[in-house]
Design brief:
This protein is mostly beta strands. Helix content is 0%, strand content 43%.
């Protein structure tokens, strides 16, 4: 593998931005990561709701995230 991404529980969504960064969604939320190292660059607060699905626009400049509410 080129890179391995650590997540909390199952990875439920992966997308790529226009700049090549990776968005990863798991049961704790989602994060923006370096594509080569997998290092977290930014974490987005989902108020303890996990990600159900993640999609990135064709331009890679916008993301839509469906959350699980508990």
């Amino acid at each position: 593998p080129v890179a391995t991404f650590q997540a909390v529980g199952d990875v439920r969504g992966v997308g790529f931005t226009a700049s090549g960064e990776v968005l990863v969604g798991d049961r704790d939320g989602f994060s923006r990561r370096d594509p080569k190292t997998g290092d977290v660059r930014e974490t987005f607060d989902t108020e303890d709701n996990g990600v159900r699905a993640l999609a990135v626009s064709p331009s890679g400049e916008a993301a839509a995230v469906a959350l699980t509410y508990s």
